[in-house]
Amino acid sequence: MATGSNSLIWFRKGLRVHDNPALEHASKASSGSMYPVFVIDPRYMEPDPSAFSPGSSRAGVNRIRFLLESLKDLDSGLKKLGSRLLVLRGEPGEVLVRCLQEWKVKRLCFEYDTDPYYQALDFKVKEYASSVGVEVFSPVSHTLFNPTDIIQKNGGKAPLSYQSFLKIAGEPSCAESELLMSYSSLPPIGDVGSIGVSEVPTLEELGYREDEQDEWTPFRGGESEALKRLNNSISDKAWVANFEKPKGDPSAFLKPATTVLSPYLKFGCLSSRYFYQCLQRVYKDVKKHTSPPVSLLGQLLWREFFYTTAFGTRNFDKMKGNPICKQIPWKEDHDMLAAWRDGKTGYPWIDAIMVQLLKWGWMHHLARHSVACFLTRGDLFIHWEQGRDVFERLLIDSDWAINNGNWMWLSCSSFFYQYNRIYSPVSFGKKYDPDGKYIRHFLPVLKDMPKQYIYEPWTAPLSVQTKAKCIVGKDYPKPMVMHDAASKECKRKMGEAYALNKKMNGNIGDDDLKDLRRKLETDEESNIRNQRPKLNQVLKYLMRF
Ligand code: FAD
């Protein structure tokens, strides 16, 4: 049986050896053993056959695979240092308590996590640990800053604009500190006793099938891959120096226009602090470089901004009870939501992005903008929380703070309020990819559609559709709404919702929202009635082809 100075490092995110203060502290267990543990949490990992795509109820199978690859890589990193990853299954709090008891752990180390799920879980685990005299070390290392510090510096409130965040945050302390990147060895694993531990399971062992998807994400999980990707990005100093979002091409998929480091940052396969230091080094070496908010370092700071705001805002992941979120009477429409989710809106640019999400779990930032705007304030007027749920489940970089923050941004519910600026589901993508290569890749049904119709296939004459082997309405859906009319309608609704928010000073009750929803729907019906003659004219014109 193990002796009294044993430590346990509990991996959740932070799936890396480099710059991992929790691991570093655990490894200092003077004469004892170190138990590196990962708990397979059924909440995230249990297959859900009733879900709309393969995966668990909370995570698409791409992200589960990415996580397993990351765990495998972590395990092999630990094995090189004389340790290994002990994989357990069950409700993490209960599993942890059993391990602490059985292995006579004196020091419990895990990275601090601001997500509400981990806040609640960690509170319970810490309470138990302190009641039995186990030392807990839970450092902030997922982000550059400690959100609590920034909120404190700002008088107890989270800063609500990026610029005020920058001013308050200043330089992170990690800018100057030396990061521990590797070890010569790690303490040995002790006897695991009666606790059932396993190697990292395969997808099949978790109940998934390799043939569940016809195309998988091309991005492999793990620290090794993260460091390789980072090195590839930063070795092109001119690219880093000139990086300027939002100038990149959202349709570039063979060689994405951005780093694709987000899934590695999400799982902590890559330390954001190391990323920060690498960027600083590049900036020192070049004469001129871009600056926040558009620079690459500026992107990392957007991450910090959303982490801080999310941590300091009540009900950040909801419209109701969220003090920074406009109250908007979004529409409930399951069929429309499902069409958007499944890439069946009839707008190839939107559908291709949603198929990339289903197949790859990653899309360019502006592609995310396009589909989020389309679902909410741009065309369909559906609740941002419903789009958020789809992203949360399918993205391999799915991140509670960043995802919720960006959905509020795109739906003009918070942070950004220019609801008259709407992305066109036709001309926006065309600007970057006039030939429609991106669409042809993710929507092969349109691969032979001539380029002049690829963004609006319903306008192609029937003879052209026949030749392209894609009849709109049969092989590919007709557009579910006409963008010009739908976006006009959305702007009108947003205008009325904003006016109500202003009038009530944000204190809008359920009944106020219900009343406004009823009014907007009645107005919409009468608008449609008035527009019908015009629509009929358009249809007659189209039928001539
Ligand atoms: P790069 O441009 O190379 O940026 C480097 C890093 O900076 C990223 O990896 C990411 O960690 C951070 N970053 C970049 N843009 C943002 C941003 N707008 N906000 C916060 N951090 C940023 N990103 C996620 O990581 N997880 C999400 O769940 C997520 N959901 C989103 C939902 C919507 C509706 C939108 C519009 C954006 C969302 N983003 C999310 C932000 C952004 O799209 C991705 O971080 C980015 O596209 C990832 O690609 P990259 O790593 O190549 O980014």
TrEMBL record:
One of its GO terms (cellular component) is cytoplasm. It holds the Pfam family DNA_photolyase. FAD binds at residues 258-262, 299-306, 397-399. It catalyses: (6-4) photoproduct (in DNA) = 2 pyrimidine residues (in DNA). Binds 1 FAD per subunit. The keyword Transmembrane does not apply. Its EC number is 4.1.99.13. One of its GO terms (biological process) is circadian regulation of gene expression. Residues 5-144 form the Photolyase/cryptochrome alpha/beta domain. The keyword Iron does not apply. One of its GO terms (molecular function) is FAD binding. The record marks W330, W384, W407 as: Electron transfer via tryptophanyl radical. Keywords: FAD, Flavoprotein, Nucleotide-binding. Belongs to the DNA photolyase class-1 family. This is (6-4)DNA photolyase. It comes from Brassica carinata (Ethiopian mustard).
